[in-house]
Amino acid sequence: MTPFLQSAASTTCRCSKTPARRIDRAAAARKLGRELSKQSKTLARNSLRGRIVPELLQQGITEYREILVSRYRIIYRLHPEAVRIEAVIDASRDFGDVLLRRILR
Fold first, then answer.
1. Which of 3.30.200, 3.30.2310, 3.30.70, 1.10.10 is the CATH number of 3-104?
2. What secondary structure does DSSP assign to 31-83, as a single string?
3. Model confidence over 67-90: pLDDT tens digits?
4. Which of 33, 50, 60, 104 lies 20 to 30 Å (CA to CA) from residue 26?
5. 63, 78 in Cβ contact below 8 A?
6. Is the overall model pTM greater than 0.70, yes or no?
């Protein structure tokens, strides 16, 4: 392969990968959104399946629960006639203080 053709091929590859990555990210985001929605809807049938949020349990707060979906925590609260989703948070973040401030406001 001549240097010109090699250079043109590598340029084409770099350019063609960028849109594909964007499409992959968008598709992954849609897939995650569908999974979060699906798991949230199952709480109506089985609201006690989630664990009590450990950061809140340390403070003596037991009415909030969570389920894990991929790398996200769906934090919800039980009400007599409904389940209310309070937050969806990236599980890799340290959010104990932020969560307490948000829920206790």
1. 3.30.2310
2. HHHHHHHHHHHHTTT-GGGSEEPHHHHTTT--SEEEEEETTEEEEEEE-SS-E
3. 999 889 999 998 888 899 988 888
4. 50
5. yes
6. no
